[in-house]
Write a structure and sequence with these properties.
With 261 residues, this protein is an alpha/beta fold. It has 2 domains: 2-93 and 215-260, no CATH class; 98-212, no CATH class. It contains 10 helices and 10 strands. The strands form 3 sheets. A 5-stranded mixed beta sheet has the order 2-1-3-4-8, sandwiched between helices. A 3-stranded parallel beta sheet has the order 5-6-7. Strands 9-10 form a two-stranded antiparallel sheet. Helix 8 links the parallel strand 6 and strand 7. Helix 1 (12-19) packs across helix 9 and helix 6 packs across helix 7 (160-174). The protein starts with a strand and ends with a helix.
Length: 261
């Protein structure tokens, strides 16, 4: 079975690691991290890549995104079915299941999660510093932006006074976090991520913790094991919508022409 994988670059290493052992033949394509910062814009970018997939070439398109602040709400399968993990965001992918994700949310409501992909995407953008005393996370101005890019964009768009206020507001948001949690795997330990996240936590005054990652959900997705309980199949013509229940997302078929009039 030949399948197209269209996924966020934040999981490049995990997807490539699992694709190497998949019984499926996979064509991989990764899109820039950060589309969830502007879901309407990001949804359009993802739809563009879905529309660019040749008709009749693939058995399925494996869409590597969670709901991510409604980023994927409205995406439509044109001519090839989509297989989408039922997940609120990518942390579910790295923890292995919605159940483990929900458990962690309950046990650590003030936790910010780090993975190799998050750290490497930040490095690709350039982890430049904002004015002294600013701790803004560097992902607010688009997929290739640094923290300084974000601040400068706000200054240009709203003026310095408003930009400083926005920085203060975001720092207030960050103040609600108490823990920085690294999700790590055996095959990523060579990257020495622990030291990087420990330093981030030290600077922000957070407690550092480490969790073993679980590739179960991603492995099933990339190996063709797609039970309805964990994966949504979107048939050609249907679109993705949030379900507002435990299933996270649902497929909605287009209305018949007679019903629209």
């Amino acid at each position: 079975m030949l399948c197209k994988v269209l996924a966020c670059e934040i999981m490049v290493r995990e997807v490539c690691f699992l694709a190497a052992t998949s019984p499926l033949l996979l064509d991989l394509e990764f899109l820039p991290q950060g589309y969830h910062d502007n879901p309407q814009h990001g949804c359009g970018k993802v739809q563009e890549r879905l529309d660019a997939v040749p008709e009749g070439k693939y058995s399925a398109i494996l869409l590597g995104y969670g709901l991510c602040g409604n980023l994927i709400a409205g995406l439509q399968a044109r001519h090839t079915r989509l297989i989408v993990p039922r997940a609120h965001d990518c942390i579910t992918f790295f923890l292995g299941s919605r159940e483990r994700y929900n458990q962690q949310q309950q046990e650590r409501p003030g936790a910010y999660y780090y993975t190799c992909g998050w750290l490497e995407c930040m490095a690709r953008r350039g982890n430049q510093a904002l004015p002294q005393g600013t701790n803004l996370l560097p992902n607010r101005a688009g997929p290739q932006a640094s923290a300084a890019d974000t601040y400068n964009l706000w200054v240009e768009k709203y003026g310095k006074e408003a930009a400083d206020y926005l920085v203060e507001a975001v720092n207030e948001w960050l103040s609600h976090y108490t823990h920085g949690i690294l999700i790590d795997y055996d095959f990523t330990r060579v990257l020495n991520l622990r030291a990087q996240v420990q330093e981030i936590c030290r600077r922000r005054g957070w407690v550092f913790e480490e969790l073993a990652g679980d590739l179960t959900l991603l492995r099933r997705w990339l190996h063709g094991d797609w039970p309805e309980t964990d994966f949504l199949e979107v048939l050609p013509g249907a679109r993705i919508e949030p379900s507002y229940d435990a299933s996270v997302i649902r497929a909605v078929a287009p209305l018949p022409t007679s019903a629209k009039s």
